[in-house]
Amino acid sequence: DAMLPTLVGEHAGKWVVVQDGELRGFFVSYDDAFAHAVAEFGDAVFLVTQVVERTPQPISLAWTAGVMFG
């Protein structure tokens, strides 16, 4: 999250591969990022996500609790 403003400024809209907490590459499409991650890391854990500005969204805890415990 601390890096997000810099990433949005430099790589907005691109897809990033994250593995072991490190940025491993930026790609134009999800498919390219995913293919790279699978080729590079195989069945290891990795994350592919789009670099976008995120706005916190409030949620209703009452609704969530009602669904969980309802």
Structure description:
The structure is a single chain. This protein has helices spanning 4-11, 30-41, 61-69, and strands at residues 15-19, 22-27, 47-50. The model has no long low-confidence stretch (mean pLDDT 83). It is extended. A three-stranded antiparallel sheet has the order 2-1-3, covered by helices on one side. With 70 residues, it is an alpha+beta fold. It has three helices and three strands. A hairpin with a 2-residue loop joins strand 1 and strand 2 (22-27). Helices cover 41% and strands 21% of the residues.
Mean pLDDT: 83
Major sheet: arrangement of strands: 2-1-3
First and last CA, distance:
34 Å
What is the assembly state of the chains in this entry? single chain
Q: What is this structure's SSE topology?
A:
Layout: H1 4-11, E1 15-19, E2 22-27, H2 30-41, E3 47-50, H3 61-69
Antiparallel strand pairs: 1-2, 1-3
Question: Which characteristics define this entry?
Answer:
alpha+beta, 3 helices, extended, 70 residues
In short:
The protein is an alpha+beta fold.
